[in-house]
Amino acid sequence: MTAAANQSGRRPTTSRRLERAGIRDVAAAAGVSITTVSDALNGKGRLPDETRSRVREVAERLGYRPSAAARTLRTGRSGLIGLTVTTYGEEPFTFTEFAYFAEMARAATSAALGRGYALVVLPASSRHDVWGNIALDGTVVIDPPDQDPLVSELYRSGVPVVSDGKPGNCPVTAWVDNDHEAAVLGILDHLSEAGARRIGLLTGTSTDTYTRLSTEAYLGWCAKVGQEPVYETYPAHDPAAGAVAADRLLARPDRPDAVYGLFDPNGTDLLAAARRYGLRVPDDLLLVCCSESDVYATTEPPITTLSLKPRRIGTTVVNLLIDAIEGVDSGTGVDIARLFPPRFRTAGTGPPPGTLMPTELIVRASSQRRSPRTTVSPPRLPGEV
Amino acid sequence: MTAAANQSGRRPTTSRRLERAGIRDVAAAAGVSITTVSDALNGKGRLPDETRSRVREVAERLGYRPSAAARTLRTGRSGLIGLTVTTYGEEPFTFTEFAYFAEMARAATSAALGRGYALVVLPASSRHDVWGNIALDGTVVIDPPDQDPLVSELYRSGVPVVSDGKPGNCPVTAWVDNDHEAAVLGILDHLSEAGARRIGLLTGTSTDTYTRLSTEAYLGWCAKVGQEPVYETYPAHDPAAGAVAADRLLARPDRPDAVYGLFDPNGTDLLAAARRYGLRVPDDLLLVCCSESDVYATTEPPITTLSLKPRRIGTTVVNLLIDAIEGVDSGTGVDIARLFPPRFRTAGTGPPPGTLMPTELIVRASSQRRSPRTTVSPPRLPGEV
DNA sequence: CACTCGTGGAGAAACGTATCTCCGAGGGCT
DNA sequence: AGCCCTCGGAGATACGTTTCTCCACGAGTG
To answer: Per-residue pLDDT tens for B326-338?
Structure first.
């Protein structure tokens, strides 16, 4: 083996530490060329099965593991996909803080792995330039703000970017988002049907697409049905502010008789606020909030939630991204037409193709006037089954 | 520029597509050698500040981004750390399913990023060999089972491995774990002091360290105080089985008057089972379960939980791993003595160094006989703030 | 004057793979 | 007999860094 290695003209160093076997060593041991080894292991080239299996066996015996770094350098593919959330905060890294992110990230990871890619979770910015140190085939960006410099930088360096959340003004390869307008309108209609006369909204101050589109849909609906808008805003990343805003909303003189909260904790906050003001849910106040958490199935009363189906989003985003990565290939650009079937594409010329995904309203007691008699805090009597 | 590139003797191809600027291009544009560029950008070598800044400026102007792949190939460092959970299931990828994993992974990610590394979440196994395709500087393994082939393989190929959970028979570089024995004994004592006469245990069937050590501690305690063990086991990854096991435990003729549940959902399951059997908590049944979820702060009654402090674990694991990675350096092995101060090392000769971290018992109403009168569902009176 | 020594920097060898090009040897066909 | 075609495989190059080695040169120094 040493002879073979030297014969191939390298490792002139005297101190032969134990090193991982390279493709050269396999070639020498199998008595073939490097090309043959590469072809045999990767199933390329034209080789008789006998040679192929022999090479494979030798490689196995030597414990040969191809160097991912070398392969990446050569092929330009790393099999790595970045996942980042840019909007919410910097360091504390709110990932998995909200159930939405956790679910979405999990689905994305699974989808990526299913296609042979791995996910790297990255912050929008960090002290060390981690981004520059990692070879990424593409990036998934969650909720990019307008003019996100990170996205622009990535796009400029040729890395495909697919965003979760319709991008405001970022040049992304593609995007996926829920149909927020339809979702909000659906909820408002649902609440109206349940008897709501004045529907309030608990929304955020940030400018991300979700907040913006949802709020706009609400305002538009108000204008259409002739209701005066009743809403409170707060910085969505501040949990304490949410409770305060919920309180404010219910303290208004024009107190709504139904509220939709855009963020996950709004449900409990609104419920608590309602209790403070002596409002019974759903009798005096109808409640819906957007959340992926199943704790709302067991609150008192259970709260109707809007699910954004983060699993579907995560899966779709990753698949779109990988399609783009593998489509870039040798051509000068992406064959977008093939990647995104028209049925899912928004009409338009220049802007990147987007996919709108439906949401799901999980109707529970909190938004039904005539609900199966959910008593407020039923004190179950000690007794038998 | 093209002239410069050709002058350096490459790119004989006629079709000059737009390519990312390489270090050569920067060198040519700045009128220095490649070495100088590399040194200037990496702050190595001996260069006058003037040269350094000039090179930096040229690189900036050209939008030069060093190739992570090439750097990795050359240096043998990728800046990537694998994170994997081997025990629980295969495909569904239970990550972030339990709050423990989510918290731990988040802390690990943060800690890694803080030191310039990124985390890659990987499954114990997948169809595509993702492991082989990624250059990993090290790996964090959560709860490795005995004789984990993955860990062995990693260790054999020289990748440092630090495990969360004391490894049974795996050759890891280091490990971190909670002091499960102390935790269980503490809980049992706590329950005894609260008046428990017969303490039951809800535990798992799997052989991971956590389950094993906890169960052994329980059995040992029973033997010591002379109580007959009362416990039920179930496959921890099956949520439905947990409810059934909880029911079994409370249906026994030798029904315990206090129960400790080893897994996150046990609290709600036990609570539900207690209701079914008409047992009041904590009056008829004391309850403690191990969980990171804060829903137990708002259950009826609030349930005492044991927190494994996953954030601390995640941070420690990653720091230990990076210490090992950066300690391996050029020497033949790790300078372990320097990395792990004696105060945290378990005594022993051969086995890998381990760190035991404390847990925290969050005492709530469910484990206190004389609790501050937590009324069942206090109906707050309608009124003002 | 010969010498060392520090400064600033250039050259070139890896790192380990994938792949493009090319080549020899048979074998069948005309 | 000459020619082409396919099979099986070898050689060499490029991917883009980092880093080891070495060199030129000017200034002190004995």
So the answer is: 985 433 444 444 4
